[in-house]
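Protein in question kept underneath.
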Amino acid sequence: MTDKRFALLIDSDNVSAKYISVILDELSKYGTTTYKRIYGDWTDTKASRWKGKLLEHSIVPIQQFANTTGKNATDSAMIIDAMDILYGHQVDGFCLVSSDSDFTRLASRLRESGMTVIGMGEEKTPLSFRSSCSIFTNLEVLLEEEKGEEMQEGPDGAGGSGKKDERAEDGAGTDRSSQIISTVIGMISDSEDKGKELSLGEIGNRLLNKYPDFDVRNFGYSSLSRFLEDYGIFDLKRVENTIILSVKSDDKTKGEIIKYIKTEVGKHGKKGIGMNQLSNELHSRFKDFRVKQYGYSQLSKFVQSIDGVEVYETDQRQKMARKCSR
């Protein structure tokens, strides 16, 4: 399958800098990002949070002075650049990141030209812009999912494979290899949800889209297949000339995990146990546990699915698990 090329255009006036990591991660699922541009008035103090992210993620800032009070000066610059890129015939699609309805007509025009248009914005994004995109993704949902994955990993890489530094060479730590493995599990889970199988080649391409510096040699391996195989949680099967990956199913281990969760929740009475604490204890007991193996992106969703356990949120917005009568 040919990797699609995308132009990423970000409206800094209408999207927070806290989303940049999940924006790039989500876009890597669709193809390679060949243009990365962000528009705003960089002389304004409100843009300061974005400034620290630009070099880190190799995003080109486009200066647009706010010459008129009350007008979003970045809109016209983004629209003009988008049309220039379109007529350059160097991309297959666009990712427009904004919560502003002013880009509705731009998204429609790009789709009329055969472009795939991925929209990303906050919950407040008007329906008109959402509907004009080929795909629209809510940034709050992506951020919540990322936080859920970080919580599953626990402190000091507790969600890792449990294997020591022999997995890492030339300064590549086990935290990074655990991050790669979690990403691969997520890829497989997403594909299975769509009724598709995922090949080793496609996984390799998507890993490079997400982590341009990824190289299995940094972890002491000469091939991606051996790197993944050594973790012991993947099944690799050859179908003609293609290697297909799946996550091994272990109902016995799942049963032990559910039993352990029920026991821990029961120990903490009516108030229950915080999700962070439960995550840490789970990873201390089951070193290779990753909730995506069981079809969930967040630990809280997995726990909520267990009979006799409920998840609730405190006034301080802390997620807790406690016993219930169902």
In short: Residues 152-173 have pLDDT under 50 and may be disordered. The radius of gyration is 22 Å. DSSP finds twelve helices and twelve strands in the chain. Residues 174-193 form the longest helix (20 residues).
